[in-house]
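Please decode residue identities from the backbone states below.
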């Protein structure tokens, strides 16, 4: 009876309780309905922001981050097509921007000194009334005719009156972007030198370059050392001027395309993609001879060429190993641009094959910092300023180079070079016969 009364009492107020519960439920439902659109909009906005951020990052809206691949490692040789040139220009632009930022910071601390330096540079190298020469001259047409017949030096001189004594040319209407030194090792090849100048000068002038031609000759009877003559040319050129770019050029390589730009970039460059004597191909894929370029800093960083390659062969492969060991990539022009004609000739006297070349190439990286540009020893016997080039004659003491600058492991290997010519020739024949029965190394022509 008591429970019934309680229930009856509760029933008395049941309508009020139910009304309160209904009101509470309605309030909760209204709150939920008002929050859901805001939360949905927030989620959509967040997703859009993330997609937009990924789009700005270059990944696109549909590419998951974990599927983006890393760039492939650089190839040993890169075809220097227009895309590669654009990448080079971008890299050069970034470097220039960084240099400009650094210069601005320096100016804040040394305004007076920087101002004086800039005034001096403007007076000496960059007149204020000139603009920079274009990277690609409008005069360039592509394939050009080559002239391989013997020519008299007076005829060549008359064709290029704008070249100043010493082999220097500087465009008058614009300021060249860099100062170029062309280094040509040459001994007993005067006629070939005249043919090269007859073809090369017109290309350099059309490209509006500030250049100087250096011919480096080596006294007899020392066996010819092409790599060391490159070092000599580099060092002697810097004694005579502040050059930014160095082109090391064989005397018998004639360019056939004036769009083969003689310039330097952020990596060493190989100009040849094919040579006439090899049916406009290369002897092997990693070949790095004939015509190559380095900036001043690049050549110093790799410690130049090796001085140990007396006689023919091996120095190009040694140079390639030095470049790659210091972290550089190697650029090469495409087939259509890097075609060269060559002047046929017999192997020069005093330039027999080096019997130690195969083994020397194997030790290129190990001795890179021990010998090269930093151990070049020579004596300048004459320096003559001709109309179209500056000729520097040097004497190289082979005994001194081998015994005093070669690392101990290579010194004993090279003793055969110091023997009499008959022993030298016999060793050459022995090594060449041995090489034909074994697997060819990177120094051999494939």
């Amino acid at each position: 009876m008591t429970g019934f009364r309680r229930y009856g009492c509760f029933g008395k107020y049941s309508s009020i309780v139910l009304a309160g519960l209904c009101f509470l439920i309605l309030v909760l439902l209204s709150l939920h309905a008002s929050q859901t659109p805001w939360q949905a909009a927030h989620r959509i906005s967040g997703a859009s922001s993330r997609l937009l951020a990924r789009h700005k990052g270059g990944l696109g809206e549909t590419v998951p981050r974990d599927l983006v691949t890393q760039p492939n490692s650089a190839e040993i040789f890169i075809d220097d097509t227009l895309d590669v040139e654009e990448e080079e220009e971008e890299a050069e632009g970034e470097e220039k921007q960084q240099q400009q930022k650094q210069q601005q910071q320096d100016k804040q601390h040394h305004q007076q000194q920087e101002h004086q330096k800039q005034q001096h540079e403007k007076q000496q190298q960059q007149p204020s009334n000139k603009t920079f020469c274009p990277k690609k001259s409008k005069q360039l047409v592509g394939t050009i005719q080559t002239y391989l017949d013997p020519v008299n030096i007076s005829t060549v001189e008359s064709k290029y009156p704008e070249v100043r004594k010493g082999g220097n040319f500087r465009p008058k209407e614009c300021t060249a972007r860099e100062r170029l030194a062309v280094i040509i090792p040459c001994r007993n090849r005067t006629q070939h030198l005249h043919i090269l100048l007859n073809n090369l000068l017109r290309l350099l002038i059309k490209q509006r370059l500030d250049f100087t031609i250096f011919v480096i000759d080596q006294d007899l009877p020392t066996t010819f050392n092409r790599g060391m003559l490159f070092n000599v040319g580099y060092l002697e050129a810097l004694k005579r001027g502040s050059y930014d770019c160095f082109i090391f050029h064989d005397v018998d390589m004639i360019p056939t395309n004036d769009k083969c730009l003689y310039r330097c970039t952020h990596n060493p460059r190989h100009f040849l993609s094919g040579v006439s004597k090899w049916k406009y191909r290369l002897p092997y894929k990693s070949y790095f001879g004939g015509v190559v370029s380095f900036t001043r800093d690049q050549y110093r960083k790799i410690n130049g060429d090796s001085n140990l390659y007396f006689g023919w062969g091996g120095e190009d492969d040694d140079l390639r190993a030095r470049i790659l060991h210091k972290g550089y990539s190697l650029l090469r022009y495409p087939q259509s641009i890097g075609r060269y004609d060559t002047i046929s000739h017999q192997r020069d006297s005093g330039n027999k094959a080096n019997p130690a070349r195969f083994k020397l190439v194997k030790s290129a990286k190990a001795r890179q910092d021990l010998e090269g540009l930093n151990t070049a020893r020579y004596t300048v016997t004459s320096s003559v300023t001709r109309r179209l080039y500056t000729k520097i004659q040097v004497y190289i003491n082979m005994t001194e180079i081998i015994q005093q600058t070669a690392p101990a492991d290579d010194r004993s290997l090279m003793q055969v070079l110091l023997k009499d010519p008959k022993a030298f020739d016999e060793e050459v024949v022995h090594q060449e016969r041995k090489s034909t029965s074994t697997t060819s190394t990177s120094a051999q022509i494939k």
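Observation: Residues 137-419 form a domain with the Spore Coat Polysaccharide Biosynthesis Protein SpsA; Chain A fold (CATH 3.90.550.10).
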